[in-house]
Design goal:
TIM Barrel; alpha/beta; 2 domains; binds zinc ion; 7-stranded mixed β-sheet; single chain; two-stranded parallel ribbon
């Protein structure tokens, strides 16, 4: 059995907002897309997905599920009211750290730095930082990172992709956190806690959304790339926070942050009781046991908006 799973991140008013350069979907476009889906597809729930995988229960033809990553406040304010009204179950994947510590995840700090600051300027700052902190953090020459990490990506220009890859996992962790914190403070905000509260779902939001029929999955804890992070540590914290969000272990699913997974990651989350894992590969998801931990997802941009 195959279904379409669609991935969303920001769904908000972007034009004429405080952050006009953030990459996301306008609410009006989201509404249009939901209508478009309603005319063509049958929405199914997280439970139907798991029952199809583990008990061969049939799902309707042309089935579709909507997923929302990163536990953003957008999902409470702009997505939940629409889905509730249309009686569609959304699947929301939340990272634990902002909920517990009112921090802003590094992945989002970087997005808002890029929102405020031209890439050429960030690149200059980064080259300066690497020069100044080479021995402190035992860093390579900038050109070495460039050689190692240059690649292409459907969503960004090559310079942005390079910056993101250097700052998501290329640099040693202490160095990249220091650099991102400095720029976030300099260009975005000096009040991380308030920014975090505005950006992310609260536990109250989550409870209300669950009561309104929404499903909650895990998006790990700190949103680090699971392939490159200290896995045991990250997963311990993931379980601690996710158990509070979704105590029903039979329904545990993980959307791998930044789509980063490998066989070890799959083994470890299986051991912890997860039943499925969602990746980012723009194809239909296959609902059987062999594919349970590599469920493909399309992006909202793959469909008319
Ligand atoms: Zn994410």
């Amino acid at each position: 059995m195959q279904i379409k799973i669609v991935m969303y991140h920001y769904v908000r008013q972007i034009q004429d907002s405080k952050y006009p350069n953030i990459k996301g979907l306008e609410i009006s476009a989201f509404k249009r897309q939901i209508k478009w889906f309603q005319q063509r597809f049958n929405f199914i729930s997280a439970k139907q997905i798991l029952n199809a995988i583990y008990f061969n229960e049939l799902v309707p033809n042309n089935s579709i599920s909507l997923t929302f990553d990163d536990g953003l406040k957008d999902h409470y304010s702009n997505v939940f009211p629409i889905l509730k009204k249309e009686k569609i179950q959304g699947m929301f994947f939340v990272s634990g750290e902002p909920l517990e510590n009112q921090v802003v995840l590094y992945v989002h700090k970087l997005q808002f730095i890029i929102e405020k600051c031209p890439i050429s300027k960030i690149l200059k700052e980064l080259m300066g930082f690497i020069q100044d902190n080479k021995s402190k953090y035992d860093l390579l020459d900038f050109n070495e990172y460039k050689k190692k990490l240059s690649t292409t990506d459907p969503f960004d220009d090559p310079e942005t992709v390079l910056i993101k890859r250097i700052l998501q996992f290329g640099l040693a962790m202490n160095a990249r956190k220091q650099f991102i914190d400095d720029l976030f403070f300099k260009y975005v905000t000096k009040d991380e806690k308030s920014f975090s509260k505005e950006l992310y779902l609260s536990m109250d939001d989550i409870h209300e959304m669950k009561e309104g029929g929404m499903y909650f999955g895990s998006h790990a804890y700190s949103h680090e790339w699971l392939e490159f992070t200290h896995l045991k540590n990250e997963l311990e914290k993931t379980i601690r926070s996710y158990s509070k969000i979704n105590p029903d272990k039979n329904s545990w699913m993980m959307a791998y942050p930044s789509g980063s997974y490998n066989p070890t990651v799959i083994d470890e989350i299986k051991k912890l009781g997860f039943r499925a894992g969602l990746i980012f590969e723009q194809k239909e998801a296959i609902l059987d046991k062999d594919h349970a931990f590599i469920l493909n997802r399309f992006d909202t941009n793959d469909f008319p908006q």
